[in-house]
Specification:
Elements (H helix, E strand, L loop, with lengths): L13 E8 L3 H16 L7 E9 L4 E8 L2 H10 L1 H11 L4 E15 L8 E9 L2 H13 L3 H4 L9 E9 L4 E8 L2 H11 L5 H7 L4 E14 L1
Antiparallel strand pairs: 1-3, 1-4, 2-3, 2-8, 4-6, 5-7, 5-8, 6-7
Helix pairs in contact: 1-3
């Protein structure tokens, strides 16, 4: 259950990320069970490398993270396989709210602890007015702002394993798929490094065309 996908695998050209709002803990569990049943009953689509369902700590959200070899394979499945799977899930859990699915490419990664085992995934989202804005923000964040990224005289935050920045193919969204040893480690970093006066929030506020959309924590995930 806690086998994490290899976000940096070189054969994954495309990451498709979607979010479902399920309204209740019961809806969250039922949505995950319906999705797993749909996976189990069909052959793996051509080009699909991994499918991952992440269940949020608020017990009302499911994040779907899928890795594909290329966009053509994903588009073929979008035409031929996904409509039936989605109907099956929606019939099992009628009140799912699909909050949008976006095609992404991994832009950059920062791995701080290669031996760490994630116990919490945090999805941090932004809206962007262009791919150029999104890339400039991520590059500035990793190259200039956080001391732990480039400076050898500053220790990485305890419990942070990695950050994987994805930019949607249309340039309108950024998702940081961040791995932590546990939920408490992320909470400590939010309290100690991500307050209004800290460097990262100041960079976000000073980047024209970038809008923060918040984050969600996930401590349970299912991988195929």
């Amino acid at each position: 259950m806690h086998t994490s996908p290899d976000i940096t695998r070189p054969d994954a050209e495309l990451a498709v990320i979607g979010e479902w709002s399920t309204g209740s803990p019961e809806g969250q569990r039922a949505s995950a069970q319906a999705a797993v049943a749909a996976w189990t009953d069909e052959e793996r689509p051509r080009g699909l490398l991994s499918q991952n369902l992440l269940l949020s700590t608020d017990e009302r959200t499911v994040l779907h993270y899928a890795q594909w070899t290329d966009e053509a394979a994903y588009q073929e499945d979008l035409r031929t396989g996904q409509p039936a799977r989605r109907r099956r899930i929606d019939e099992a859990v009628p009140h799912i709210e699909h909050r949008g699915t976006f095609e992404h490419r991994l832009h950059r990664s920062l791995v701080l602890d290669r031996r760490g085992r994630p116990g919490c995934i945090v999805a941090v989202r932004f809206r962007s007015d262009s791919r150029e804005t999104a890339a400039r923000f991520v590059d500035t964040l990793l190259d200039e702002e956080p001391g732990f990224a480039r400076r050898t005289d500053v220790m990485p935050p305890a419990g942070m394993i990695s950050n994987h920045f994805h930019i949607s193919t249309d340039g309108t969204h950024v998702v940081n798929y961040a791995e932590f040893v546990d939920e408490d480690a992320h909470a400590r970093i939010v309290e100690g490094m991500l307050q209004e006066e800290d460097d990262v929030p100041r960079l976000i506020d000073s980047t024209p065309g970038l809008e923060p959309l918040g984050f969600k924590r996930f401590t349970t995930w299912l991988t195929r």
